[in-house]
Amino acid sequence: MTRKPARRVTLQDVAKHAGVSRATASLIVRNSPKVAAKTREKVLKSIDELGYVYDRVAANLRSQKSSTIGTIITDVGNTFFSQFLLGVHHELEKYGYTVLLGTTFDSLKNQERLISTMLENRVGGILLCPVSTSSTETVDRLKTLDIPVVVGIRELNELTCDFVGLNYQAGAYLAVNHLIQKGHQQIAFIGGISDSTTWTERMEGYRAAHEDAGLSIDYSLILDSAPTREGGMEAIQKLIQQDRLPKAIFCFSDLIAFGVIIGLRKMGITPGKDIDIVGFDNIPEAEISYPPLTTVSSFAQKTGTAAASLLHNRMQHPEEQRQRIIIEPELIKRDAF
């Protein structure tokens, strides 16, 4: 004999079990502060005992207003994005949002799929950290969306939506100028995807620091790579194989710097002694690595907080003028470098 599927527990069931009205139970599942603590406790106990699950999508359809945010980042394994997400979650929790997270692993195909998935789940807004190969097609797609979009970290040209990022040019200038002040005249620039705006802006800072110091650039010392430890290792190995290794290296990110350090050690070269290295981002590992890494702080958590706040504001006030928030970097000097 076929068993009938168990009936889904409704909010009306919860209200009856707790001895409150359905309206009161609804306020509690939506985290409203308007309900007394004792009543809240009673309803939450009924929810637990009955196994009630809040159907958020159905609620969004009824209210025509979603309390779910879609957040898309490139690499959840990168500590920079972990810090960024801390800022995002802490800020959005203040407003009672639920966050759906997707990771592209810097794949344009994954990014397109995740945007579609977020829309299918009827999110009220999207916070997007674009992949490095984002194209004009990506921009065109985002322009057609009928929900608020905030872009973070990597700016997309010709997309006139809210943006939060860092002054990457100033950050690169700080890093390269630090190496110049230490007496270096040949400085490599390693890592990052050269087609991305974040690489281009760092390159502008790298170039400006050389120009201000009256130094020429040796373009054979500029190698792009995947923005990962592995990318840093591969790039430094190429430089060593070409017998072009200088005494100073500016790295696109701290992850690249860690890869460079590993690659150098494999060749018997001691970072901080035989060669000076500066990273970018100031992720927590930079302080506890050996040797501790001098780097540029990109204030990842602060950036995440600002992006989340901007998205909330855009959802509440869609008619307001577009905002572009640029956070200023800071050079974090550590003894070894």
From TrEMBL:
Residues 9-63 form the HTH lacI-type domain. Keywords: DNA-binding, Repressor, Transcription, Transcription regulation. InterPro entries: HTH_LacI, Lambda_DNA-bd_dom_sf, Peripla_BP/Lac1_sug-bd_dom, Peripla_BP_I. One of its GO terms (molecular function) is DNA binding. The keyword Repressor applies. This is LacI family DNA-binding transcriptional regulator. It comes from Oceanobacillus jeddahense.
